[in-house]
Amino acid sequence: MHFCIQFHDWFYQETVASVDPAGAAARRRKPRDQRRPPSAPTTPSTPQRLSTEQLAQALRSHVLSPKRMWTLGYPLEIEPNSTKAVVYINPPPRPRPMTTWDVNAPEFVPGSQGDSGRGSLGSTPRSDSDEEADAVEHLCVRCDKMFRMTRDGEYVKEETCLYHWGRVSSDSRYACCKSMLGSRGCSVARSHVWSGTRPGMNGPLEGYVRARSPRGGVYAIDTEMCYTTAGLELASIAVIAADGRLVYRSLVKPSSPVVDHNTRFSGIRPRDLARATKTLRDVQNDILGFVGTDTILIGHALENDLRALKLLHSAVVDTCALYPHARGFPMRRSLRALSEELLGRTVQRGSNGHSPLEDARAAMDLVLLKVQQEQANRVHSISYQLPILQPYDPLVSSA
Ligand SMILES: [Zn+2]
Ligand SMILES: [Zn+2]
């Protein structure tokens, strides 16, 4: 906690001076100073203050390559300047005792042109009835059961979803109820839900947008999603600038009927969406009002946010890649674990679900921390080398 305030100040002082004139800076400095605990560690010995442009420059080496983006599940354009996207989804890394992934199964067959991202898992008729003949199979992301829906988003069969909401920990027990991996679910929901994508190739996906104007800047984005009949859809978004300033925040009306608000994780309650007025298209337009082709977007597992936003963007820095899991990809460290360990900050602990604002700030601060550490290391290595280099430097020798 202490350290994160320290390095946030380190960036903030510069941007306040350059972006925010004296009055606002003074107003902001006061609460920040009040927050600072008396036991806070001293500022690193060689803090180098950065402007947004300098930060963008420092992040260049961390921007994901297209190949890496593809592996991580980012939406990529189908051809230069296209707004149609393709997404490759790796089979999920979490333990799935009820399901084995078969690369020859229908769900691995690339989607057809008319699929439009609905993520059908094949459309072989299994019944003589018209409705079932039109049905597609989806994997429930909560209980791992397969279920069927018509292409219009109607469930073929009413079936409750018995699932565990907790992750499986290293002792093969669910965090929610401590029962063993593969045991009967401890929670019940009215229907199964699916992600909107399937393992393997997804696409071509319609409705994507991309920045066109040559604008820079560095922003962190976080979104929250609800389960609809079309899979996970955008329900809430927050964008913050590198100085921690909230740039944009909105609730979003999903385009398809909501099946489950996913409140435990999304923080979205039915009454929130009832007062949402913006559509995905509105939010896309808003975002492209300040995100340009050179803007660096930051996030934790940002591919999920860009897929929900249907935003094609190539300059991305992902905290999952910045702080990889010790066991390597596809294992990932959670934002909660990274925040607690590196920022000394608790996020995603409340019973009201994630806050996109809190999560975006955590992702931004993790990136600032990395840049600051790299700068400190560089200064340290230069000062460490100086005594060795000096005797060999003709200018020093002749002095
Ligand atoms: Zn459970
Ligand atoms: Zn289910």
From TrEMBL:
It is found in: Nucleus. CDD domains: REX1_like. GO terms for biological process: negative regulation of gene expression. Residues 22-51, 105-133 are annotated as: Disordered. Signal peptide: none annotated. Coiled coil: none annotated. InterPro entries: REX1-like_exo, REXO1/3/4-like, Ribonucl_H, RNaseH-like_sf, RNaseH_sf. Keywords: Exonuclease, Hydrolase, Nuclease, Nucleus. Residues 217-376 form the Exonuclease domain. One of its GO terms (cellular component) is nucleus. SMART domains: EXOIII (SM00479). Its main location: nucleus. GO terms for molecular function: exonuclease activity; nucleic acid binding. PANTHER family: FI18136P1-RELATED (PTHR12801:SF115), RNA EXONUCLEASE REXO1 / RECO3 FAMILY MEMBER-RELATED (PTHR12801). Belongs to the REXO1/REXO3 family. This is Exonuclease GOR-like isoform X4. The gene is LOC114252637.
